[in-house]
Amino acid sequence: MTREEEYALESLWHEIWHNRQTGNAGIKTLEPQHPTRRFAETLNQAVARLTYPRFLERLGGTASHQAWVLENGYSYSRTVRRLWAIVRRCGLDPVGVAGDFAAINAQGNLLSATDLMAKQLAKRSGIGKAMIHAALDALSVRDDAAFTALLDDIKSL
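^ thats the sequence. predicted structure below, dont judge the formating
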């Protein structure tokens, strides 16, 4: 498969993940651009990018372009890229937190997903939850400098 064909299957996996979510009833009541709904979509997109290789394997394929998809996927590209920056600033690897993210995405109340993720990243990294939460809250801000300032507040170990 080309990377675009592989990404197309990852996009399908993103939509399948929406059907696997149990905590999304409240999210659907929010406007599409609401920060909480955007965070829930970013989380779902991140989980899809992290977990689609097993989906492809079950279909008889191989994820040959996952590194590209993880970093360059088209959907929610800015917010996912920023999410990876937060994870890395916490001294963690996105692939290493895939299980945590998937559990929050599938079973958590998505209205409080930002808090759930901040708590999990703080637990894994030893960094203060409030700093992580502030950066997660800013994933959708248009001002790159404002996001970068919050990212800089997170002190990596």
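Residues 135 and 150 are 5 Å apart (CA to CA).
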